[in-house]
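Justification of computing resources. Each target in the renewal requires a structure prediction run like the one illustrated here; the chain below, 283 residues long, is used simply to show the kind of job we budget for.
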Amino acid sequence: MVKNENVKIEVEGKKIDAIHYPGEGTCVVMAHGFGAVKDGLIPFAEVFSKDFGVLLFDYRHFGESEGEPRQLIDIGKQLQDWRKAIEFAKMLGYENIALWGTSFSGGHVLKLSSEIDVSAVVAQVPFVDGLATVTAIHSITDIITLTMLGLADKLASISGKTYRLPIVAEPERLAFMNTPESIRYLEIIPEGAKWENSAPARIALSVSFYRPIKHVKEIRCPVLYVVGERDTITPANKTLEVAKQTPNAEVVKFDGGHFDGYLELFEFCVEKEHDFLVRHLLK
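Resulting structure tokens:
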């Protein structure tokens, strides 16, 4: 197993925490999805580190990274953290950068690779269209309620306070994710991770308008879409539509929901992703 090291990356005066698995030539830069932490992605990073360098990081406000309020999900900040992590990987001497994202960060890597020259992208069960995801998860009534709570949190933030909501919950409870499969989210957070099941509600004001689908036609590097055919959070039909719009796309489907790729079908997904990276980066 490749020895890893903890590193800190400064972004706007705050330090984000990362794990670096040293390698040669190519670095796979990785971050987790909506409201999660890097600890749950270590099994993926360890597989990729057999052939590549890996830089796995927590966003500001999450895990061991700095930033208050805790567990703030801010799309602009997360994209900036990605850019700084990519710059840091280049400073380490890597000539080629690959991006690996899952769920919410799967959307981030699609948007970023439309703007930044990278060598390859893996997007696992990616968030490709905010409106499609929000309407797949929530009723109109819940969407209105979440919007009102988001406004309440935004107002509270003026005085340094937050109004928080659960990240995941059972279908009868209001949360950012509450489809029947959503509670499986808790299985991807390792025991002992610095994490809690809550986030400031203000993300509800922007998540519907975040649409990586608008940018994929500009991506020039190879992209692997890993799609759960029974995904109720990032719907498979929308992801497959996006893959068709991506100039150099490959698709791997699995018979499962949003979280199976981390859990029961981890070996299948990580093997397909590793093979894709080897084919395109070790020519």
